[in-house]
Design a protein that fits this description.
binds acetyl coenzyme *A; Peroxisomal Thiolase, Chain A, domain 1; four-stranded mixed β-sheet; five-stranded mixed β-sheet; alpha/beta; about 325 residues; 13 strands
Length: about 325
């Protein structure tokens, strides 16, 4: 059998801000309650960046943790892709800030923006670079400080989001291409820009010369979320020639416990195989999936050989899924 190239996960890392904000604390700021937030979303607390903590600093810490976990030197990396909608600056890219902080001077580094689907887009993009043979090892990072684009007087959005970063190291390896062999096996990405008004930020460099605040029609997002993510997940199953039973771990975007449960139920994935971190992290947008991966690897749930499905849906709308043999 002629070997093919596959992108293998070598390491995982995460970084969270120092400060935890509980639902009770938010209830002092806006007209809400711990009971409402938990019942509607499953969120109990979130981390919020403080002075000196930025998307780039969190991304760098997550990257360092992933490299330590992989047992690799920074010089091994020749591609950095950062998924974020909350960069430190309009430019340069967070990825180049991470690159400089790690002392890397070779290879390519760029940001990618697909809001909450950013990490899934970044995994699929890096996978295509690695399988083409152009690059050998990639840091794929999801990093956000959504606290800085929230309207803290809007209870319908400010209770939902948190800050953080997660990273994986992907490495191009020869593979026999079998389903049992490690690496990214399938990925599906989608977008439909007609849904812009349901989830957007009302500012930006070219339109308003401001940063703006997140605006969301939560009910409308909810209405589309389950159908969209289950569609791309089924696409990945079809590409890989497997069914939902084959999955060891389902690691969905952590937006809302009810969306996670409904998606798992629609796919027939038992809740015992679903990694949930929304209770402690809130919705960290592009950071949510790699943060959840880091938690489940650290606590020993995700092990080498496991089949892991990641998925997300977010502003745009964008949505996507990827099937990875660990
Ligand atoms: N505390 C108390 N009451 C609240 C709060 C709050 N924080 N927020 C809204 N309410 C009120 C509303 O005003 C409304 O009151 P009314 O009935 O008097 O008008 C009532 O609660 C019900 O509001 P709904 O919006 O109908 O509540 P719903 O059950 O839909 O839950 C939620 C809202 C949690 C936002 C849900 O719709 C949701 O999770 N949507 C999806 C969000 C999502 O997945 N985003 C992912 C993508 S994010 C990204 O890409 C950046």
């Amino acid at each position: 059998m002629t070997p093919i190239l596959r992108s293998r996960v070598r390491g995982v890392g995460a970084a969270l801000p120092a400060r935890v904000v509980t639902n009770a604390e938010l209830a002092h700021r806006v007209d809400t309650s711990d009971a409402w937030i938990q019942q509607r979303t499953g969120i109990k607390q979130r981390y919020v960046a403080g002075d000196g903590e930025t998307t780039a600093s969190l991304a760098t810490k997550a990257a360092e943790a992933a490299l330590r976990h992989a047992g690799l030197e920074t010089s091994a990396i020749d591609l950095i892709v950062v998924a974020t909608s909350t960069p430190d600056y309009t430019f340069p890219a967070v990825a180049t800030q991470v690159q400089a902080s790690l002392g890397i001077v070779d290879g390519a580094a760029f940001d990618l923006q697909a809001v909450c689907t950013g990490f899934v887009y970044a995994v699929a993009t890096a996978d295509k670079f690695l399988r083409s043979g152009s690059n050998k090892r990639a840091l794929v990072i999801g990093a956000e400080t959504f606290s800085r684009i929230l309207d803290w007087s809007d209870r319908t959005t400010c209770v939902l989001f948190g800050d953080g970063a997660g990273a994986i190291v992907l490495e191009a390896c020869e593979s026999d291409g079998l389903i049992a062999s490690p690496g990214v096996i399938a990925s599906r990405l989608r977008a439909d820009g007609r849904h812009r008004a349901k989830l957007f930020v009302d500012g930006g460099p070219s339109a308003t010369m401001t940063v703006g605040h997140l605006r969301m029609e939560g009910k409308e997002v909810f209405r589309h979320a389950v159908g969209m993510v289950t569609d791309v997940i089924k696409g990945c199953f079809a590409d890989a020639g497997v069914t939902a039973d084959a999955i060891d771990w389902f690691v969905p975007h952590q937006a809302n416990r009810r969306i996670i449960d409904a998606s798992a139920d629609k796919l027939g994935i038992p809740h015992s195989k679903v990694v949930v971190t929304v209770d402690r992290h809130g919705n960290t947008s592009a950071a949510s999936v790699p943060l959840a991966l880091a938690v489940a690897v650290e606590d020993g749930r995700i092990k080498p050989g496991d089949l892991v499905m990641i998925e997300a849906m977010g502003g745009g709308f964008t949505w996507g899924a990827a099937l990875i043999r660990w």
